[in-house]
Amino acid sequence: MPDDLYIPIEPWPRSGRPAKHDVSVWTVTDDWPDSVPISDAELDVFEAWFGDLFDELFEPHR
Q1: Taken in order 54, 55, 59, 62, is the CA torsion positive or negative?
Q2: Which pLDDT belongs to residue 15?
Q3: For position 22, what pLDDT does the model report?
């Protein structure tokens, strides 16, 4: 394989118009409550997909 397939160049120009505001000075905040309720169905989904990971993270160290 040739070793020059990827040559770093300037970032690709973005299509569309530029942002109207300077996004580097934006401040991101949230208004979520400290405790967000979830349903039993949502909890079941998390346990089904991430149960093994949760067990590994939260099991007592031996």
Answers
A1: negative
A2: 73
A3: 82
Of 62, 58, 61, the C-alpha closest to 46 is 58
Report d(CA 37, CA 43) in Å as an integer: 10
How far apart CA 44 and CA 51 sit, in angstroms, is 9
SS3 44: helix
Q: Which residue type does 34 have?
A: D
Q: How far apart are CA 20 and CA 43, in angstroms?
A: 41
Torsion angle in degrees (nearest 10) through CA of 40, 45, 47, 51? -170
Q: How confident is the model at residue 41 (pLDDT cuts 50, 70, 90)?
A: very high
